[in-house]
Amino acid sequence: MYDARPNLGAECDFARYYKKKGTKELCLSKYPIGSYKVRRDSTASCREQFINEMNGVLYDECFNNIVNKNTYIPIPKASIEINDKIKPLDGKLFMMSNSLANSKYINKHNKELIKLLDYILGTISVCLSFGKDEVVRRELKSGLPGKGKVKKGKIGYWDGFILEYPLLSPFWTTSPILTSFITGLARNCLSYGMWYKDVKGKNIDESLFDNVEYKRIQDIIKNVDRESAKEIYYEVIIPFVSGDDVNNAKGMMLSTNERRKSIKKLIDDGFQTVFRPERMQKHWEKYSEFYGFYRFTNYINNPKSVLKYENYRRI
């Protein structure tokens, strides 16, 4: 199995709230939506670098907590209501080719790659984030499956292709651990696709999920059908990543029992049960201490860890 390492980028929104004086009630700010971009411009590529860069951008663009003299609390919502109108918020993810092999695959097989991202990343995102704001976002036809585009651009020393994947809401930016997990899954999808095409001689959608029609995946995502998403996760995705071709591959996010065990609570109960969106800034302030998906996995699976998930929830 390949370990493709495309450069990563993001364009994300967040909602601005403030705490009503004398209460715990959160209300939308006068300036309700903020946004920021994280785009790599070097040939080096790893999730640690991306998250480190994202941390810096968040402190510059999001965590300054003041806009036009109005203080706020940043929350990565999927949609918010402004003056009786619903506004969807996005958490766009970019993969940028930093090698000739990546570039050729992203350019020639982007439709298959987008479909694969929907199968794995889209399905898992429904398991993780399924609140009313997600349902409304999809009803507004934002973040629909099958969408995405490729454009040519210069990445460091490379002239190559950039894949934009707009399906996700900003939920994955709540914590650096979630960011590590989601970006790792995205890179895995590129690895799966390139490996299947070169080694198996097939497009991955022709062979990986023969028993699950793509239309079913589309319906699950459009309707935020969490129970069906969990069924696909446990009955289709997990058997695939547990297969002999995949489970020993470097960088595969769900290829070991320990990694799958650590994420099970988030899949079963939703990401908010561990990482509270209203504590986004606190999670990133702790990022050097509780950093990365693998460290999270080691902590959750350590028999000496007493509080486990509650330790993150208390942040």
Please state the overall shape, judged from the principal axes of the Cα atoms.
Answer: globular
Strand portion: 15-25%
Q: Identify low-pLDDT runs.
A: none
Main beta-sheet strand count, sense and barrel state: 6 strands, antiparallel
As a percent range, the share of helical residues equals: 40-55%
Q: Could you spell the SSE succession in H and E letters?
A: EEHEEEEEEHHHEEHHHHHHHH
Please summarize what this structure is.
This protein is of the alpha+beta class. Helices cover 44% and strands 20% of the residues. The chain has one domain (7-313).
Describe the structure.
By secondary structure, this protein is α+β, with helices and mostly antiparallel strands. It has one domain (7-313). 44% of the residues lie in helices and 20% in strands. It contains twelve helices and ten strands. Strands 1, 2, 5, 8, 9 and 10 form a six-stranded antiparallel sheet that branches. The protein has a two-stranded antiparallel sheet with strand order 3-4. Strands 6-7 form a two-stranded antiparallel sheet. A hairpin with a 2-residue loop joins β6 (79-82) and β7 (85-88). α1 (47-61) packs antiparallel against α5 (176-200). It is globular and about 65 Å long.
